[in-house]
Amino acid sequence: MTRLGLDAGDGASLPSESSTASFWHQAAQDSGLLGHRTTAALPTRANVVVVGSGIAGAFVAREVLELVGEKAGVVMLEAREACWGATGRVSLDAFTSHAYHDYHDYQDYFPPLSYRAAYRWLQNAGRCQPDIWNNGATPHIARFELATYSMLSELVRREAIDCSWQEVGDAHVLLSDDEAVAAREKVARLPGELRALVKLEWRGDGERQGESSRIRGEAVGVVVQEHGARCWPYKLVAWVLRRMLQGGETRFNLQTGTPVTRLVRVSRREEARGGQGDDEARWMVHTPRGQVAARHVVLATNAYTSHLLPQMSRLIVPVRGQVCALRPPRRAVLLPHDYTWLSHGADDYLIQRAADQEGNNDDDAGANEAGGFIIVGGERFVVAGGQEGISADDVVEPRIGAALRTAVPQVLELQEAGEARASRLEAAWEWTGIMGYSRDARPWVGRVPGQLVRGGGEAEHQEAHDDDDDGLWICAGFTGHGMPVAPGCGVAVARMLVGKAGDGVSLPPEYVACAERLGVAAARAELPRGAWDC
User: Fold this and answer.
1) How many helices (H) and strands (E) does the chain have?
2) Where is the FAD dependent oxidoreductase domain (predicted)?
């Protein structure tokens, strides 16, 4: 057999056994998924094992079930509770496309000055905003995100999913003439059908763009995209998981509290003689509760991928993000939009929930009739290293929390004219979550290249991984930007797995996990730090 896995201290750790309490996990109490194990005993075999139960893993499993039906045999293994990673934690921009897919291009246009760059016009909880105007050089990526957005919109509408989905628009506010010139150039590069979905609006003489948006200072103009939605991602994922569970345990079996500790490849010789009693098994998936023999294994593990694939420790790096739910000042106005701005060269982001929405009560909302919590995340570069390489979400960083409490009043007018302006807001909730940052800023989707699973040192290793159909797959490395693309990536990898690659899904070639990417990506000295930061 070929053994994969990490010794303690190498790459990412397993998810923390305990974690900070996420505002979004309030919905877990009524989800029916806490502590869920479809069967008391861990299944001993599966056709497909999906490791991870966030947005990517959920859509991988859902698509396999759609394509294969009664014989799907999917087992999903989750180290903690269902949807307890980034999707349920640092997903305020869930389903929101971040603006600058080319990090170096982004740096040229928006230098790392505090509190500059694009504000986003969306509202409420998670967001689904296909990025169009910044993808002039890669229009196929814009089309992929639009397709993912449409898929989700149709699913939510057709199934009447209770996940706070509301379709809104998005406006990127331009705060300087340089930004305006850059925006005009980007929009001009778009193909015609994409350009029609974007419009530029410029501030007229005497008009202050910031007055209606509560932005401090003047804006030069805005880039408006009408395709966008807001959403509560945990609720959406919980719905997908519950629906799959209705099909019975032979189709889909969810096992929470079951971390995968290592993968062992069944060698060709063992395959030929039936490998531990299962002539379809190519992988033995090890957990503290036992082993599962599987034909296919899909790593929907995002930040934690290198715990099982140590050769990916440089390619997908855990990065801890921090979020606060802030009480608005008394007699504050309801913020009309959601916002993103630059601080220390990376994004901060903000949403406000309506006072009467789930998750707020009179005390929590600060007795403010206008609006509920102001939820803000970012500021990770106020500490050295920007929380890169950290895979534990069981603590918060006090210096980041302090910066988040003071960031909002520096950027937005929270109160009516004449009110004494608050300089610091009180936090009702504060939590962290771990993002998986891809060194080349692109997700890793598809069959795991053989180079990433070779090197275990056992004699049978080389032989075991020359097979073009190795059965090990990946859907991870979303760089804090996964929600607008992760569902589509999950569908794509599921179709590859069942032999229908490319059938109805135009996965961007930049996302494909292939040998050609490895050296180029690993050679990048720094991780992306800007527009994907969530």
Assistant:
1) 13, 20
2) 48-495
Residue 202 in contact with residue 151, Cβ under 8 Å?
no
pLDDT digits (tens, 9 = 90+) for 244-294: 999 999 999 999 999 999 999 987 655 555 544 455 789 999 999 999 999
* 135-156 exposure pattern, b = at least 16 Cβ within 10 A, e = fewer: bbebbebbbbbbbbbeebbebb
CB 282 within 8 A of CB 470: yes
Distances (CA, A) of 429 to 165, 267, 374, 383, 524: 23, 49, 10, 21, 36
* Partner residues linked to 377 by β-bridges: 323, 349
* Number of domains present in the structure of the chain: 1
Q: Is residue 345 part of a domain?
A: yes
How many angstroms separate the CA atoms of 343 and 112, rounded? 7
On whether residue 364 sits in a domain, the answer given is: yes
Q: Is 294 helix (H, G, I), strand (E, B) or coil?
A: strand
Q: How confident is the model at residue 462 (pLDDT cuts 50, 70, 90)?
A: very low
- DSSP H or E run through 377: strand 374-377
In tens, the pLDDT along 376-415 reads: 888 899 999 999 999 999 999 999 999 999 887 776 667 6
Quickly tell me which residue has 């309801």 as its tokens: 334
Structure token digits, residue 406: 């003071």
Asked if 58 and 237 count as a contact pair (C-beta separation under 8 A), the reply is: yes
pLDDT band at 483 (very low <50, low <70, confident <90, very high): confident
Estimate to the nearest angstrom the gap between the alpha carbon of 312 and the chain centroid: 18
Distances (CA, A) of 287 to 256, 264, 271, 294, 394: 11, 11, 21, 13, 22
Residue 109 falls inside a structural domain: yes
pLDDT at 130 exceeding the cut of 70: no
CA distance 94 to 53: 15
Residues 6+ apart with CB under 8 A from 483: 55, 87, 91, 93, 94, 95, 96, 126, 128, 233
Which of 528, 482, 486 lies closest to 388, judged by CA? 528
Which ranges of 161-206 does DSSP label H, i.e. alpha helix? Answer: 177-188, 192-195
Q: Is residue 512 part of a domain?
A: no
Residue 370 lies in domain: 103-131+165-229+320-435
Phi first, then psi, for residue 333 (nearest 5°) are: -90, 155
